[in-house]
Amino acid sequence: MAQLLVRSGYRLSEDPRGAEVIIVNTCGFIGPAKEESLQVLGDLAAHKRRGQLLIAAGCLTQRYGVEVARQVPGIDGILGTRRWMDIVDVVGRLRDGPHPEPLYHLPEAPEVGRDEGGALRAAVQGASAYLKIADGCRRPCAFCAIPLIKGTAVSRPMDAILEEARELQRMGVREIILIAQDTTDYGHDLGLRDGLAQLLEQIGRAVPELEWIRLMYAYPGYVTDRLIEVMATHRQVLPYLDMPLQHAHPMTLRRMRRPANVAWVHRTLDKMRGAMPDLALRTTFIVGYPGETEEEFQTLLDFVNQVGFDRVGTFQFSFEPGTTSEPLGDPVPPEVKQERYSRLMEAQQRISLQKNQALVGKTLDVLVEGQGEIENSRTGWQPVPTKPQPISIGRSYRDAPEIDGMVLIEGEAPVGQIVPVRITGAMTYDLTGVVETARMTIRLEDLSTSTGSFKT
Ligand code: SF4
Q1: 203, 165 in Cβ contact below 8 A?
Q2: Which of 278, 253, 277 is closest to 265 using CA atoms?
Q3: CB of 54 closer than 6 A to ligand 1?
Q4: CA distances from 146 to 29, 244, 324 (A)
Q5: Alpha-carbon distance 273 to 286, whole Å?
Q6: At 438, is the pLDDT very low, low, confident or very high (cuts 50, 70, 90)?
Q7: How far apart are CA 435 and CA 417, in angstroms?
Q8: How does strand 363-373 pair with strand 375-377?
């Protein structure tokens, strides 16, 4: 939306107080996200200047447009997520004249529009970029509101994705993170077989200088042998997979309307680890799903201890009206959800620490994302601004941005570069290390020979 507006002559404003139009892109996925969206809208509406326009866009308004406008007096425009590309028109209509009532732009649309107006569907953060390959979802998960919000899955044309990957490479991006509600479903509507594997191969060819391609949100059951082969044999594709499993008890999974073949999960993980011995596995689970018994939860806990995931995200079940699980209600008491959440997280913390400790002494490539100051105390790394020691912060192939761990590097490493780091310490989620200068020097010398322009 920002890109389309800028292309139409609008300027971005750093400060909502100075803006003529304020647009809030809301989230309507689970309860806490809805509350946060309403809170932000309420704050902005309360401080709105005369003549200023407030537009609520995104998933929450797609689902509950009228209610959002009713709960937050002062909203001028409502735009759903399926027609985000109409933002310029909506802003124009609002600026044309007074609107005593909110302007609703929620046309009937069965899915997210394919007419993207040439917007780059990537969010760039430093040297990384999330690149959207599809939108919407056609899976039947009983707890999930996303298909209600977004409609069925729509794959973006491969040519458009490749062109955007080239553009990101030109911008100096080092890591592309492919996202969709379900990346493994990529291309089914384009008539592609193993579309995600094909896409990975094509991206690798299109951007040979780009170092890292990371894959998120792989739906269990659709990680094919072909996909595993492409991941294992293409140097740019990181040996990292995020496969949200949601549970490990077949009965819970059936009630969730998720793939319940746990034997398939074990087989596939074995295959993947056979093909990629350094594979970093991330998953997410829901605890407190309706009807989850202590025995079902214990099965999940045993599964987590047995598989040894590198990363686990856990959510407490959030009741979503309108989903297929609605008739099941929300019978698991909050304190039971909380207790199961804590037990699962504690189990995973032990595993995570062991995995991190096993990396001490090894060298990992790390994408440096920032520099700061820290105190290197005997008890660990504690941010203390008064006793500064320069450190750099980055991520290895095992860490997706924002949700996984970090590597804290002693000294000042070059931001935006991938450098070899020898791991010297391990914490539950993060690692510490030092840049391996020997390997760095060799790399710089290589460059200086090949280009004649580098001075070390
Ligand atoms: S695959 Fe993910 S986005 Fe799609 S319905 Fe299931 S949980 Fe929701």
Answers
A1: yes
A2: 253
A3: no
A4: 7, 15, 12
A5: 24
A6: low
A7: 12
A8: unpaired
According to DSSP H, which parts of 82-170 are helical?
Answer: 87-96, 146-150, 158-170
Q: How far apart (Å, rounded) are the C-alpha atoms in residues 131 and 3?
A: 15
Taking 80 as the threshold, does the pLDDT of residue 189 lie above it?
A: yes
Compute the distance from residue 139 Cα to the ligand 1 centre, in Å. 6
Contact 214, 240 (CB under 8 A): yes
Probe residue for ligand 1, chosen from 27, 30, 182, 245 as the CB with the greatest number of ligand atoms within 8 Å: 182
d(CA 111, CA 148): 10
Long-range contacts of 444-447 (CB under 8 A, 24+ apart): none
- Tokens 């892109």 belong to 25
- From the alpha carbon of 246, which atom of ligand 1 is closest? 7
181 CB near ligand 1 (under 6 Å) = yes
Say what the pLDDT of residue 381 is.
54
pLDDT in tens, 53-85: 999 999 999 999 999 999 999 999 999 999 999
Q: How many helices (H) and strands (E) does the chain have?
A: 13, 20
Specify the length of the chain in residues. 456
Residue 219 Cβ contacting ligand 1 at under 6 Å: yes
Query: Average per-residue pLDDT in the chain?
Result: 92
Nearest to residue 360, comparing CAs of 431, 298, 295?
431
**Band of pLDDT at residue 372, cut at 50, 70 and 90:** confident
CA 378, 383, 384, 385 torsion-angle sign = positive
pLDDT reading at 454 higher than 70 = no
The verdict on the CB of residue 147 being under 6 Å from ligand 1 is yes
Q: pLDDT band at residue 437, thresholds of 50, 70 and 90?
A: confident
- Residue 144 Cα: closest atom of ligand 1: 8
